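Supplementary notes for students who missed Thursday's class. We covered one full example, reproduced here. Read the sequence, then the structure, then the short commentary at the end.
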Amino acid sequence: MTGVPASAAGGSSGAQGARGSAAAADGAAPAAAAPAAPAHASTPATAPAPAADAGVTGEARPARGKKITAAAVNQASVWNVANLLTMLRLVLVPGFVVLMLENGGYDPAWRSLAWAAFAIAMITDLFDGHLARTYNLVTDFGKIADPIADKAIMGAALVCLSALGDLPWWVTAVILGRELGITLLRFLVIRYGVIPASRGGKLKTLTQGVAVGMYVLALTGWLATLRFWVMAVAVVLTVVTGLDYVRQAIVLRRQGIAERAAALEETEE
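Structure (token representation):
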């Protein structure tokens, strides 16, 4: 009387067989059929669970370890090669000024040493940004210090040249005014996006470096005439690229305002 009817047993077996087929079709683990194992089985039904948990934990731990390692690398990356080159440029600024103004500022030997310091600063400017982007060495310190170092060495050279009477003050005012103005403009529109450096801007930087370097040297004759024209090209590129950056900033701001207005309308709807 306590036995299970044959039809019920068959139905139960059929249901288990259906579940087994479904599990096999879905690629389920054999542990899904564990509840159907006999009570006297040597391995408990819950035995696979620790192995599964251990597997999950084993996969999660390396992932967390990688994140911790990456965070440690980022924290220690302030002293990377790119930032050290930027620091070198900052240190070269006062050294350049001393060399430039030594012995009245007109000694060819001291001017040559000043040119060497200026050239090193310009060369490191080319490498530190490339190294930071290529090897993922970008840091908050580098983002702030790099443009400061660029403006500092160029500004020091222009001011010294104008103070010595080698370069008109209006040229110094145009170049420094443009550099400081564009830097401020970038910060003002940063909420809408980033103004990328253009090819014209890179050519301007190169031309400025060559022109200022030629003025730092005590050149005479046709080289003195050549540096005048190189500086003229640098001034033209300075003004033209500066106006282009202003145009880009205006377009970027308008696009940002339009996108924010569209997003606000969508949220209100």
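Commentary. The two ends are 69 Å apart (CA to CA). Confidence is low (pLDDT under 50) at residues 1-76. If anything here is unclear, bring it to office hours.
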